Amino acid sequence: MNDIVPRLSFATRLRNNFLTGLVICAPVAITIWLTWTFIHWADSWVKPYIPNRYNPESYLQFAIPGFGLLIALVVITLVGFLGKNLIGRSIVNFGETILNRTPLVRTIYKSLKQIFETVLKEKGTSFNKAGLIEYPSAGLWSIVFIATDAKGEMKSKFDAMGRDMVACFLPPTPFPTAGYLVFVPREKIVLLDMSAEDAAKLIISVGLVTPTDELLSPPTPLSARLKQKLTK
Question: Does the keyword Hydrolase apply (predicted)?
Fold first, then answer.
C-alpha cells in the first residue's frame, strides 16, 4: 500500500510560496539597489562640475541617471590616452612634482599610486586564488586570498630567516572588504581549487553558499604550481 503524502496546510503553502518568492526577488532587488546607489553616488560627484551648456539636464525636464558616471568614464579614458604621449606625460610629471613637494599629501599620493600600480600590474595573479590557513589557532581554518610573494624589505628579512613567505589577505565574514594582511609560510597554505569568486561567496554567505562538490577536486597544498603562477 502506497504511503499517502500528507496534504500541506494553507499556511504552510503560503509560507513556502513566500520564501520561494523571496529567494527569487531579493537578489534582484538588492542588485538593482546597489547599482542604482552607485550610479547616484557617481552622478552626485560629477554632475556639479559639468558646465550647464554641456549638461542636457539643464534644458530637459527630467534627470538622466548615469550621465555623470558616463562623463567620468570618458574623462578617465581621455586622461589615460593623453598620459601616454609626450605632452600629456609632461603635464602629469609636473602635477606629480607639486604633489611630491607637499607635506602629508605626498605620503597619501605615493601610497595610493603604488597600490593602484601594483594591483593593475599584477591583476592577472593577485587575489585570483584562495587558500586555507590555520587561524586563529591550530585546528581552526580560515579562507585567505593569495596576494603575492613577499617583496622588498619584507622579502629580505624573511630570506635572512630562511623563510619562504606569501602575502595573503584574510577577510572577515560577512564583509570581506576589510581584513588583515598576513604573511604565511608557503608550506602552511592549502591551495583551494575553487575560484576566488566562489571563495568570496562562501565568506559573504557565512558558509551557506558553497561550490558544487563534484566540480572540485580535494584541496592541494600550495606548491611550485602557485609559486610559478605568482612569479609570472
Answer: no
pTM value > 0.85: no
Q: Where are the domains of the chain?
A: 83-121, 129-230
**Starting from the edge strand earliest in sequence, which strands make up the sheet with 220-221, in order?**
180-185, 165-170, 141-149, 129-134, 190-195, 220-221
Q: What is the pLDDT of residues 129-157, one digit of tens each?
A: 899 999 888 889 999 998 888 888 888 89
Q: In terms of Cα–Cα distance, which of 46, 39, 111, 106 is closest to 76? A: 46
Quote the CA–CA distance of 43 and 35 in Å, as a whole number.
12
Q: What is the mean pLDDT of residues 32-43?
A: 92
- Per-residue pLDDT tens over the stretch 150-161: 888 888 899 899
| Cell representation of residue 118 | 601594483
Helix (H), strand (E) at residue 30 = helix 10-46
Cα separation, 182 vs 134, in Å, equals 12
Distance CA 228, CA 232 (A): 6
Q: Reduce the DSSP state of residue 63 to 3 states and report it.
A: coil
What is the pLDDT at residue 118?
A: 67
d(CA 113, CA 103): 16
